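User: Teach me something about this protein's shape.
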Amino acid sequence: MHAQLEGRSAGDVIEVAIDGNQIFGPRDESLVFTDRIENVPEEYRQVGASILMENDAGQTRSFLVTHMDDETLTVDGNNPLCGREVVFTLEILTVRDATSDEIKAGGAMAAGPDIDPRLLRPV
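Assistant: First, the predicted structure itself:
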């Protein structure tokens, strides 16, 4: 993302694309299951419902209901962003010179960006 910020000024709006596969790994089709709807508790019979499942080793994974018809229901244990490109639209609020410590370290020293939560909105 540093390259997209180079030469920008306060007020500029940039788009930064991030490959979901780099963050969450590639899709794993073995994590997609379809079952007869009568085998699924009624509270989960809605597309978008989240179901926490546990395997024999006691590990848990969240699955989302992704498809449903009169006879079957499909759940997917992949992160919804796997296999997708996510595009963030960012507005640059301020620009400042790097401090000497940041120059020595090769980057910002702060724990994270200073984001005004009032500016965050879903797209």
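Now, about its shape. The longest helix spans residues 100-105. The helical segments are 2-5, 20-24, 100-105. If you'd like, I can walk through any region in more detail.
User: That's plenty for now, thanks!
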